[in-house]
Amino acid sequence: MLLELVVGAMMTGRPVVTLSDGLTSISAGMISRLPLLVMRGCELSAYMYVWNHFRLLELPWDSAWTWWLTFLGVDFCYYWVHRFAHEVAILWAAHQVHHSSEYYNLTTALRQSLTQQFTSWIFYLPMALAVPPSVFAVHIQLNLLYQFWIHTELIRDLGPLEWVFNTPKHHRVHHGRNLYCIDKNYGGILIVWDRLFGTFAAESDKVIYGLVFPIKTFEILHVQLHYYVYLWKKSKFYKALSNKVSTFIKGPSWKPGKPRLGDHVDNPKVTGKEVPHDPNWPLSFQVYVTFHFLLVLWTYHELFESKMMLSQLTLLGMTTYILLTLTSLGFIIEQRPSSAFLEAIRCVIMVTLLRFNYLRSPIPLLSVPTEAFVSLSLLYWALQSFSQLFSIKKKAD
Ligand SMILES: [Zn+2]
Ligand SMILES: [Zn+2]
User: Which residue ranges does UniProt annotate as crossing the membrane (predicted)?
Assistant: First the structure.
């Protein structure tokens, strides 16, 4: 990501990542892994269960044939996981997170859904009838890892590789909200599935990234969950039960009387002149948010390192602290009036956690400066909250 930032600045003369959007994407990536603190991954657990109880044959784990077959199998299943995630509204509610950035860079790859993992495992289960879990486990990881590097605008065209592989060029189309981009290029590693099943589109007009209706927020839980609320409200709007059900299981653009996936012509027209949501916020806050983000990233890392030694209660408490921190930093980016109060409370919790050694400084030598920095942060936000309260009271008088 840092390399992309440097090379991007040299190639285009401007930063290809913004702090607000980049941090929101990395935050989403962090949140998507939080369930792994308290439970095993759904994908492997369900897979192991089917393998143990229902397998029909055992492909030899050490055969090259098994290796290549699993590579194709996982990528084929991924195509369908991904296609369903776009074509079924309740699954889209989870997957829209990945598409919610109006930028396209390597941080966008990390913008992952918290809830998608609870349904995606179903699609891989047929493989458990024959493919050993050890081989499957490797390929599901490789498939995910491969998809990191394709989230960049810096690689334009890869010649003959474009015929077979999913590349930055093809995946840019997938992230576009232009009419020609909607519901296209679902492939993971290979693009041949899209060519085969008729969902391929080549990059042509300038791609405008993000959701058809951009959410324009850095509030991380809103990014993750807003679409569920929207779907619930949409379903309540309809009287007929069939329409209520269709709201959840048909395409996100579906309306009564329209085909299953809705009519994309109804969506807002893309002119090519759209600019991503990038609010102005003071440099001092940018430095502040960066420091606190690095601190919470360290806490997150340490939590995963030591999760086996911690009680479920501690893990839940620390998870809440991380969510609160990422939410509060998002509020500061948006400069919401409530951010002072929320951040003051968070700093109180942070000081307490530091005191009781639940939090530690990344470098032991810096533990005193870190504590001083957090205490000063608390003082600043407490004063801000007081002055806000005072001005509200004055207005009321
Ligand atoms: Zn997608
Ligand atoms: Zn993507």
Answer: 64-81, 121-142, 283-301, 313-333
Domain that holds residue 307: 283-396
For residues 46 and 68, give the distance between their C-alpha atoms in angstroms, rounded to a whole number. Answer: 22
> For residue 19, how far is its CA from the centre of ligand 1 (angstroms)?
23
CA of 82 to the centre of ligand 1 (A): 6
Query: How many angstroms separate the alpha carbon of residue 164 from the centre of ligand 2?
Result: 18
Q: Which residues contact 162 (CB under 8 A, 6 or more apart)?
A: 169, 170, 191
Q: Considering the entire predicted model, what is its pTM?
A: 0.95
Domain match, 13 and 118 both: yes
Residue 364: what pLDDT?
84
**Ligand 1 center to 87 CA (angstroms):** 10
CA dihedral 225, 78, 102, 11 (to 10 degrees): 150
Residue 202: inside a domain: no
- Facing residues of 165 across strands? 190
Determine the average pLDDT of the residues in 16-23: 97
Q: Which ligand is nearest to the CA of 149?
A: 2
Q: How far is the CA of 376 from the centre of ligand 1 (A)?
A: 42
- Residues 180-230 have pLDDT tens digits of 999 999 999 999 999 999 999 999 999 999 999 999 999 999 999 999 999
Check residue 18 and give its pLDDT.
Answer: 97
How many structural domains does the chain have? 2
